[in-house]
Amino acid sequence: MSGNFFMMSNDIFNGDITPYEFTVYSYLMMKADRKTMNCYPTVGTIASACNMSKAQVHKVTASLEEKGLITKIKRYKNTQNGKKHQTSNIYVIEPLPTQYRGSASIIDTHSLSDKEGNNQE
Fold first, then answer.
1. Which whole-number Å values give the CA distances from 119 to 21, 24, 111, in the listed order?
2. Could you read off the pLDDT of 68-102 as tens digits, one per residue?
3. Would the pTM count as exceeding 0.90?
């Protein structure tokens, strides 16, 4: 299978998630490294990609973090006067909390086999 796509667990639909949260969560999943499940888009980039304001992105990422779906890690650099300045965030996609799990899978990143309908001819 080729193309521009990513995989996400259907279990996300088992929890209490708003359309805004789903949109941002999906975007972060799309951007996340499949091994580390980390990504670091700017708030402005998320807002633009998800067609919402930066203020809405802040609210949504806080809510996703409160629900245990992501962890936001603030990144800093030292300025010339010795103070720390926040540069960006790292977003870590967490395993789905128990209330979201409808099956044994959490995040399925394996490729489909031929038995599952993926003929690679």
1. 34, 32, 11
2. 999 999 999 998 898 888 888 999 999 988 777 76
3. no
Give the CATH number of domain 16-96; options: 3.30.1130.10, 3.40.50.1100, 1.10.10.10, 3.40.50.300: 1.10.10.10
Contacts 24+ apart (CB under 8 A), 83-92: 88/40, 88/42, 89/40, 89/43, 89/61, 90/38, 90/39, 90/40, 91/28, 91/32, 91/38, 91/39, 91/40, 91/41, 91/61, 92/36, 92/37, 92/38
In angstroms, rounded to a whole number, what is the distance separating the alpha carbons of residues 102 and 42?
32
Closest Cα to residue 31, out of 91, 82, 76? 91
